[in-house]
Structures are given as structure tokens and as C-alpha cells.
Amino acid sequence: MLNGDSLSPIRFGPAKPPPLRVRLIVERLKLLSQARSTAAMARFSIGEMVRFDAGDVRTITGRIIRLNKKTISILTSDHERWNVAPVFLERAKDE
Questions:
Q1: Is 20 helix (H, G, I), strand (E, B) or coil?
Q2: Which of 38, 39, 75, 95 has the highest CB neighbour number within 10 Å of its CB?
């Protein structure tokens, strides 16, 4: 209580959904992103040898074992498993 008055919590009503135009723009951006990802993914196939830079000084080489929704699963010769976005991959020569 402050000077005899009680403080009441601020109440927020339910959030209003965004306007239709905003939702349509967001859906369109998602669709374009998915199309780019699908196109990048289509360059590769299961069993193919690929390589990518691992952020440090190493380059990882491995074989594609699975094409996921957003990433590609790679299995290295050391039996390490990596999930990598297709934009970071390039083809490697078979060993």
C-alpha cells in the first residue's frame, strides 16, 4: 500500500494477431527461404563425398548419410557425425 492506495498489477489482454498483410509477408519470406534451402540441398545426394570448414583450422571430409529438412548429415572416416547446412558444403574427391 502506498499512501492508503493499493497497487494493482498491470493486466495485459490477449495479444492481437498481426494484420493479414504482415502475416502474408512473413509466409512469403518463409516460402522463399525454404525454396533456397531446397535448391541448395538438391545439389547433393546420399553417399556423395563432401567437405567443409569446421570453424577452426580443420577441413572435415565425409560421406553424406542423410538429407534432413534443413541440414545434411555427414559421417567422417573417424565415425564423427556432423549436421551441416548445404550452403557450407562442397564436393570432395572419393578416397
A1: helix
A2: 75
Domain that holds residue 86: 20-91
Q: Which residues of 35-61 are buried (b: 16+ CB within 10 A; e: fewer)?
A: eebeeebeebeeebebbbeeeeeeebe
9 located within any domain: no
Q: Calculate mean pLDDT across residues 58-73.
A: 93
What is the pTM assigned to this prediction? Answer: 0.66
d(CA 55, CA 27): 32
C-alpha Rg value of the chain to the nearest Å? 24
Structural domain contains residue 4: no
Report the CATH number that the domain containing residue 29 is assigned in CATH: 2.30.30.140
Number of domains in the chain: 1
* Cell triple for 63: 560421406
Looking at per-residue pLDDT, the higher value among 36 and 28 belongs to 28
